[in-house]
Amino acid sequence: xxxxxxxxxxxxxxxxxxxxxxxxxxxxxxxxxxxxxxxxxxxxxxxxxxxxxxxxxxxxxxxxxxxxxxxxxxxxxxxxxxxxxxxxxxxxxxxxxxxxxxxxxxxxxxxxxxxxxxxxxxxxxxxxxxxxxxxxxxxxxxxxxxxxxxxxxxxxxxxxxxxxxxxxxxxxxxxxxxxxxxxxxxxxxxxxxxxxxxxxxxxxxxxxxxxxxxxxxxxxxxxxxxxxxxxxxxxxxxxxxxxxxxxxxxxxxxxxxxxxxxxxxxxxxxxxxxxxxxxxxxxxxxxxxxxxxxxxxxxxxxxxxxxxxxxxxxxxxxxxxxxxxxxxxxxxx
Length: 333
Known about the structure:
The protein contains ten helices and 21 strands. By secondary structure, it is α+β, with helices and mostly antiparallel strands.
């Protein structure tokens, strides 16, 4: 591509690099100049303009952005991603439904390394999305790029993004009470909101005594595809009431404790084919906490291991929430 100033008569058919005011109208950058445009610019006293001219082997910015988007998303239906139209060298990618974005970092970094004029920006891996959430934008910075570079970037980025849809339809939340009083609705309401965003429904409310036998029986009879436990007293040890109840019901505890704050006191397990998440007390708030990261992956059918949870510590210091009884500030550990 050739780029630079040319005399006005020589600008016909070239792409205007910078918006200019003509005699009666403004001419936008990126426009391919015709005779009427040149007359407008001449009427405004312009004698020279900066333009771009495509050469053999160049691909216009819009066509290039569209081609790269199609390389990233060769199967929109299977990948759960919608490709927008192209304009000003940009194409956006949107989630078709709720779920969790997965991306191949190596592929995306390789695509972005081909040519500085070819760029792909995304939201983070494991980002929860709703229908219509923008997950990536492709921007061709110059007015054209070499076809060879575009083809290389497309090969590198092939199929690098997808949205994992939730695989479960229902969840049972079992709450425990440490006295005769029924727990407030706050925790259930917060969890119902989280599940609704994932297209899941919550089974009728179930509250049992904070005792191993009672909780084990409730777990064994729960009908939801996914089982959630929110205890009236915090789970503070792998042998505490909730993990012990899961084992007594015939299940397995995969992990107790996570390096995410708030959210340390989560546990993850299974009961037959059903995942079981022991929720930390902070899950009573709709604010982001470690339980969200585990819940979203589990709901979207991702296997979550103890090692996966251990890896969440980098970036796991989340926003302070007012409800915490021990604020993370100097002098409070």
